[in-house]
Amino acid sequence: MRRHHLGRGHRQLVPHRTTPHQVAGALGCPLNESTEKPVTLSRKEDEPMPESCSHLDAVAEVTPTSTGCEDCLRTGGEWVHLRLCMQCGHVGCCDNSPGRHATAHWEANPTHAIIRSYEPGEDWWWCYPDKLFFEIDGSPPAPSHP
After folding, report:
1. What are 40-70's pLDDT values in tens digits?
2. pTM for the whole thing?
3. Which of 41, 4, 2, 1 minimizes the C-alpha distance to 138?
4. Computed over its alpha carbons, how large is the radius of gyration of the chain?
5. What secondary structure letter does DSSP report for 56?
6. CATH no., domain 13-39+49-137
7. What ranges do the domains of the chain cover?
């Protein structure tokens, strides 16, 4: 993994070059078994992965609004993995969960483009519109649910 230092006050995102299985596992989404590609990603095979996320300016210091998926807790649903909206702190479930509430939150709030894993030991970020999986050098440790 490449890491670059941009100097004081600058954040450098580090795109991951990952296999479809790694992306699918991290996002909690199933693979299309015939193509071995995550079913939630729509980037064309020959379309290059962006080197940077164009939505980082929307990231805020957030406080998680719940210790579990807000929507699943409200409806009695279950989740597999949790994701944290980095604009408002909404906690939603991954795409492998029946409710897919993190993605639904972004679809209902398109300016809330970036999520971060809310799982212990995971430090990755995901930008929905750029379809970019990355880490940010110098960012505080990833939050996680209890």
Report:
1. 334 445 555 556 788 888 888 999 999 999 9
2. 0.68
3. 4
4. 15
5. G
6. 3.30.40.10
7. 13-39+49-137
